[in-house]
Write a structure and sequence with these properties.
Layout: H1 12-18, H2 28-34, E1 47-52, E2 55-56, E3 64-67, E4 73-75, E5 78-87, E6 109-115, E7 120-128, E8 140-149, E9 152-160, E10 171-177, E11 185-186, E12 199-200, E13 210-212, E14 220-229, E15 232-240, E16 246-247, E17 250-251, E18 254-260, E19 268-269, E20 284-287, E21 290-295, E22 304-308, E23 315-319, E24 328-329, E25 346-351, E26 357-366
Parallel strand pairs: 2-7
Antiparallel strand pairs: 1-26, 3-5, 4-5, 5-6, 6-7, 8-9, 9-10, 10-11, 12-13, 14-15, 15-18, 16-17, 18-19, 20-21, 21-22, 22-23, 24-25, 25-26
The protein binds 3,6-anhydro-alpha-L-galactopyranose.
Keywords: Glycosidase, Hydrolase
InterPro entries: Glyco_hydro_43, Glyco_hydro_beta-prop_sf
GO biological process, one term: carbohydrate metabolic process
Length: 376
Amino acid sequence: MANTPDYTNIDPEIIDYLGITDPEHLSAASKRALAWPEGSRSNKWFLQYETFDLKGDFAYEEGVVRRDPSAVIKVGDTYYTWYSRSVGPSQGFGGDIENDKVFPWDRCDIWYATSKDGWTWEEQGVAVARGEKGTFDDRSVFTVECLPHDGKYYLTYQTVGGPYEVRVKNQVGMAWSESPDGPWTKLDEPILSPADNGVWKGTAQDRFAVEKKGDFDSHKVHDPCLMFFNDKFYLYYKGEQMGEEITFGGRQIRHGVAIADNPLGPYVKSKYNPISNSGHEICVWHHDGGIAALVTTDGPEKNTIQWAPDGINFEIKSYIPGAPHAIGLVRENDNTDDPLKIMEWGLTHQYVSSDYQIIRRFEGARKERHKAKGVK
Ligand code: AAL
């Protein structure tokens, strides 16, 4: 039987800090506040964001989708980023699946752009293209991330092969190069695939109809982000599950990690998966010998920043007002004493319409006081 907390001798300083009127009559909310973790009084991890339009080739261009930017990697005096690029509107499902574009991220190739100042970006061209007809990535390659390591660059990205049906499984591909400008060598096989222990019900293209849901990543493995951590390669990713439900926190989306000794794999999924109970796009960085993560969009722990000393067991460090989506972090600001230094600026995307998205800039800053206008 869980021990009921003792509310009789609460430290008067805590009563004052929580502003509790009468400790003899504690509300359910005050009892939850009294259970907040160590460190909850600190704003060390609390921040807010602003977003800005970018110039050059990242300014809005009718008819072109640019979205899901990777981390920003500085090479010499030049910033590099990779992203999903496609053209034209999307038709959604239910039409001519062979010729339609079902999502803005359907029929994508991975392009890259450079900048000297992080504001004006020049599109350089295709980095990784879709595969030949019949390959596991012949329909779309998208939502890319980049890890520079030991003089090489590793791109990890989502792949779809064949008709982009509702029930199509999404996998993760990899390409590497000795230069951020390529040429890129694609691995012939995916480095990560969905769990195969879900069972669809019936043959209709309905992702909610299941005999058995299977693991959190039984339908799709998404948003791959490779980190070098503890002398190994940690591939963080988002999992989508067959038979996904909407719960008290919204969509059931969780994160996982697969680990390898060599950047080219094999990647072995952690026994501890899922390592989050919420989230959407992956946003992870090094801090204090561990891994920090921004959890957005979906699940009861959306809009939290979390930290795990072992890269696996994440605890909540702050609840934030919200965050830009699909963040691309500036890796030169990674692994600093200040856990939020990396949020000073970076990239994100924004929907101009359901068909078209643009890449924008975000700037984040710790919030230490809520001051009215004019208050110094
Ligand atoms: C994004 C990412 C993945 C999804 C889609 C494009 O938010 O989670 O990339 O597939 O949306």
